[in-house]
Amino acid sequence: MTATGRRTEVLAAAVSAFAESGYAATKTDEIARRAGVSQPYVIRLFGTKQQLFVAVIEQVCGRIEETFREAVAGLDPATPTAEAVEVLGKAYDIFLTEREPLLGMLHGFTASGDPVIGEAVRAGFGRIYGVARELTGASVSEARHFVATGMLLTVMSAMGVVGHDAIPVPWAVEILEDVQDVPDLC
Q1: Does residue 98 lie within any of the structural domains?
Q2: Which of 21, 39, 109, 133 could form a disulfide with 25 if both were Cys (CB 3.0 to 4.6 A apart)?
């Protein structure tokens, strides 16, 4: 396997491990075991656990940005903002069913006290916000509402009350019924 392929495997193992245990509790030995490589190899690829975690955050944010760009690629530039925002909301559905990337991101928020991780998390979140505005023409208020709804759904996904195997708690069902752009998640 190529170094790029191994790096991809280690990164996937890291997403899974960090999603499960968070930044502080995850050991590079565990990531190496999941990837089927040695712990020194993980360090050789990424430098430190901190740099590996930053790579995970950058990958997750980059994937969200890419998903948004792909979602609107075929839209007419004259598409109304509300319709474009709805397209992005539907595109985000995939992340609500793939919990690991979003759990990794949530762990990034909690590890933001670390200056390097905090900078990466803030930059990634800022890019997602900026891409949402750029692709939809949304005002600050509209983009804030979109991002706030996305964060609410992300947290609900982390709790297991959104998705195909969702635990049907009444308050979550009520919220999901009110969120117009995610009808298949109820």
Answers
A1: yes
A2: 21
Q: How many domains would you assign to the chain?
A: 1
Give dist(CA 105, CA 121) in Å, integer.
8
76 belongs to a structural domain: yes
pLDDT at 82: 93
Residue 37: inside a domain, yes or no?
A: no
Residue 16 lies in a domain: no
Please provide the DSSP assignment of the chain as one string.
Answer: --HHHHHHHHHHHHHHHHHHHHHHH--HHHHHHHHTS-HHHHHHHHSSHHHHHHHHHHHHHHHHHHHHHHHHTTS-TT--HHHHHHHHHHHHHHHHHSHHHHHHHHHHHHTTTSHHHHHHHHHHHHHHHHHHHHHH---HHHHHHHHHHHHHHHHHHHHT-SSTT----HHHHHHHHH-TT-GGG-
Low-confidence stretches of the chain (pLDDT < 50) are 181-186
Q: Are 50 and 116 in contact (CB under 8 A)?
A: yes
> Domain span at residue 111?
50-185
For residue 135, CA distances in Å to 36, 72, 154, 166 come to 39, 7, 21, 30
Quote the radius of gyration of the chain (alpha carbons, Å): 18
Asked if residues 62 and 125 have their Cβ atoms less than 8 Å apart, the reply is no
